[in-house]
Amino acid sequence: MSEKATSLSDLGLYGLIEHFQKQYKPLNTSELPAMGEDACSILTAPEHLSSTTLLLEGINFDLTYTPLQHLGFKAVTVAVNDLLAMNASPSQISINIGLSNKITLEMLETLMSGIFAACEHYQTELTAFKPAASLTGLTMALNVTGKENKKGLVRRSGAQPTDVICVTGDLGGALMGLHLLEREKRVLQSNDHSQPVFGDNEYVLKRQLKPEGRTAFLTAMEKLDLVPTSMTGISEGLATSLILLCRSSKTGCRIYENKIPLHQNTLKAARELNYNPLIAALNGGEDFELLFTLSLEVYEKNKEGLPEEVSVIGHITEEDKACRMISNADDEIDIKARGWGNLNI
Amino acid sequence: MSEKATSLSDLGLYGLIEHFQKQYKPLNTSELPAMGEDACSILTAPEHLSSTTLLLEGINFDLTYTPLQHLGFKAVTVAVNDLLAMNASPSQISINIGLSNKITLEMLETLMSGIFAACEHYQTELTAFKPAASLTGLTMALNVTGKENKKGLVRRSGAQPTDVICVTGDLGGALMGLHLLEREKRVLQSNDHSQPVFGDNEYVLKRQLKPEGRTAFLTAMEKLDLVPTSMTGISEGLATSLILLCRSSKTGCRIYENKIPLHQNTLKAARELNYNPLIAALNGGEDFELLFTLSLEVYEKNKEGLPEEVSVIGHITEEDKACRMISNADDEIDIKARGWGNLNI
């Protein structure tokens, strides 16, 4: 065996996926499965999709400030979002859960009540519940199965030069919510008598603690007979999603700093935290919005009637133009994915 | 919120599943989903099945004595087994993996080579690989999707009184392998210079470290045109599987101590470890054999031609007869499931 010891952080998250994708020899197809897509098609039942999400204590959530009911709801949202990101609707969910001995039945009931509420919200049947013991904190693996929407699946790989780049909702809020919670945790740890002070930051706290997937947006697009040329979820910041979409589509892109949608409460929290809200939008995570492209023709025909949550942030270019953002000072800045970034591996 | 703090171990593993199964209100069916089945049907694509397996360091494996390549192979076996246990064949697998910073690229390559080998062994395409950082040890979530075999799914719930109870292979070996490894770990920890001594215990070590699912058995049964009336996997000991099968089928059972298949190497290792091999078979785990029932008529017609790995261990009774084992001394002993048992929650 080799004595080399290469750190995983040398490759980064997506480098690691590509590394093993190249090593794997498919059994039945000449094509490599798209191992890094948001969800994967069920080979024996095309039109159907499956995606698994793994959530680990200390990485994906901190039980010191996360209400268990919200955690249950959010876990389902994270899982469901991978299907939404391909224009599919979830129909059932299974949950495997590793329980440490600090978790009581009452705590688990609170967590499960959030999962049940999310199942109802997303009209998704819970079909498996597999508890197990854990020595290493609360661990959840959620599998979501569903079906493509009427207009068919939308993949990351369909963007073409001149396509218009759009996002739903606003970005960076979930990260600002996280930083507020982390700040309050430090205050609480240093002073037993103080109470958390969230002021009027409910919006960003809700973005962090109880995000909701964009099901209504997909329904609206279907009613308008609009099909994106490509789409992906924004779970690890706009920069990562843009680069994945452009790499899959073999294109470049230009986005505009002043077009990136930032909520006024995100801007306010960012000021309070002395944090650059643009960095939060580009490299933050967990906004659970959708990034998609429309052909220029379709966009021009429908621009007045797009769902109100849509913002146009730029356009797709030829691949050799790279992925860049035009800053407010009119500079072209390379867009970089954060890889493992703040995951501390 | 309630101030009660009920320990999860008061309910036991299957008590916990039933607890939440009763609390859940299904969306679209009047029937409660069978949340504890080995795998679940895909609601939007009947005939197709999905199952997720969560494997946690310190609970499901110990990296101090588990070769990473075997761990990769075994992880796929554990996942695939849930589909085999319902008479289905796996067609694709996805893996989410939480990686702690002690895992190097070279270690991950060894683990993945075992996963790749198992994918080839089970003719199952790897369609998603999602790595993430973990602060709490190596964590794997594997989802397997597949399709029912030609004769259709076999559930736990189909057993009828007078049906013959069968198992594949032999039982208790994997637990004896585990105890040998644990013993060697203690020796190695107390003395840096000693080497592990496995003697001629390769059989039970392989049962623990590199188990294989019973795909060939299912193919053989299909060729013989034989369909079990009920079936489940034996992953947590014969006792738990028998009780789950009888509870689902609303029956009791009688099995015979002297019919339980024990490999001669399991008996030998049990002597060496001063362990009761019957307890290993009933309450051990990870044998990954199949427990199934045949109608008496079908059994009588085919008993000479059954696949050689099949042992008949007893018969199904009416529910009020309970689940009991006839000992070699002709006593009737209640069969008890171990619940969380050695999971130390």
UniProtKB/TrEMBL annotation, chains A, B:
Main enzyme class: transferase
Binding, substrate: 286, 340
Highest rank taxon of the organism: Bacteria
Enzyme nomenclature, EC number: 2.7.4.16
Reactions it catalyzes: thiamine phosphate + ATP = thiamine diphosphate + ADP
Swiss-Prot/TrEMBL GO biological process terms: thiamine biosynthetic process; thiamine diphosphate biosynthetic process
Family: Belongs to the thiamine-monophosphate kinase family.
Domain PurM-like N-terminal: 38-127
Function as written in the Swiss-Prot or TrEMBL entry: Catalyzes the ATP-dependent phosphorylation of thiamine-monophosphate (TMP) to form thiamine-pyrophosphate (TPP), the active form of vitamin B1.
Positions of Mg(2+) 3 binding: 38, 82
The protein's name: Thiamine-monophosphate kinase
Residues the entry annotates as binding Mg(2+) 1: 52
NCBIfam families in the cross-refs: thiL
Binding, Mg(2+) 4: 38, 51, 82
Residues bound to Mg(2+) 2: 82
